[in-house]
Amino acid sequence: MVKRFLNTYVIREKLANVAHLDIDPAVLVKLMVFEYGHPDAYRELYDFVRQSDGLPPQIREWEDYASGNSETAKSTAAEPDWRKDDTFLRRWTRMEPALSGHDLRDYFWLSRDRLDGTLGELRLLPVFLKRLVSGLTAVDPASRETAADELVSQGDEDRERVLAEVGKLLVAAPDKIEPCSGLIECVLRKVAGAETALALALGRVDQEKLAMGAGYRFVNVRSKGCGQELTSVLDDLSKSETPVGKVMAGAAKKRKRE
Amino acid sequence: MGTSSGYTPAGGPQWGAAKGDAANAVNPQKSGSEKLPQALQSHLAARLGGTGQTSGGGGVSGAAGTHGGGGGRRSAGGGTAFRVARATAQGLGQFISEVQTDGLREALVSRGLDSLADRPLQEVIQGIVSTLTERTGYIEEADALTAAGKVLDDLRTGCDTLDEFEQRLDKLTDSARMSCLLSEFFRHVLVEDFMRHYWRHLQEKCSNGRLEELRKQLDDLLFEKLQFDLDYGELGEVEWSSDEAQALIERVERETFELCCEVVS
Lengths: 258, 265
Hints:
heterodimer, A: mainly alpha, B: mainly alpha, 0% strand
């Protein structure tokens, strides 16, 4: 069993290289542990991934549940057979790294031999668009700026897909500042559709969990002038009692004093 | 994280409050990272032995006294918290000034690092960092050197060769840019110092992964805050071995820490 696991891992890693997929080996191993430990559960997770274009909200619920932050997942944990004993789910969810905020579609594509050929339902992004999404959500600010510059010259459809993907990453992992910063870079460069994508994402995200540092960027964007749709969302956010709202209110007050 | 484990911070009422605030920052049932700014402020208050009031005339570095680290390792202490960091900041300024005057290769030769000239930039930076300050044996030295490494690593982003890195350093000609760089340095020092003090305490409450998340959240928050507020304007040339440089470093340190504490909501 262990030998088969390792062989499969090596094959998938090579396949990812050949297909130019940006794969985190730790995420691949964690998903394979799930796949080998509970094949039914893996299939169910695949359904979640398919329905959510790679960012299943259930992963966040499981992580909150495993960290004692929420009772939500516990109530659903009783339904399927494999979840009656949730010890496995808890232990697996606590394993590093956390999966919320990771687009899992490529990982499931790598394991397609175990998923009975239903991958047509998995909407995969072309490699060059994936590169732009990775650039816009990179930790390094220079990479985000370069990707935003590149996005300006893309066709309407590709640009919208990239912005929508980054927006989804923001909604899936609001505590990570990078997707937010990537969208803001696009707004500052007047990338068509960027304001709408940011406004939509901020409307759907759990605002309580937004990275506080993003508040400073929002104030900057607001002060430089943006469309009515985004202005209205940002104004509401700055009046909210959320951590990011408090940061925005404080920063705006300080800017005014200066 | 190298120095994070195996270190126990000092005791005392201020440290107790600081530890409590740090624990709240990783507790998902207590709003989690919303408590981070408070934890940071309590930490600085305990670290500097002041009242925690950092805005206005009080000033972070104006607070007298400090607590040394407890546990098995030595901490600088003695009323001069972050002294090692200030010395490292001065070393960083001197190094960059040397590169601008004599070139990067000459600066490496003068530090006995000429053998690194053909090595990857990351190795060159590690070598440079090891020469920025005299070895003191204080645990703060690890924070300061890690912080200096991060600053130089950020600077080398997009550079593939020694010459490209030299050009990047050459652009830091005025002291306003250098001050921003030093502010980045002190931000990294603060984050490293905070994480080291509570790592073992917090390890009992959450996973290492959560602690790394906390480090990143703190770093992101302070980065955004400083980007938003810092404005040094034109400050003129600075001779990095002079008292004037000392004064500038202390000013940057004070202002950075004050801004970092200002985040408290």
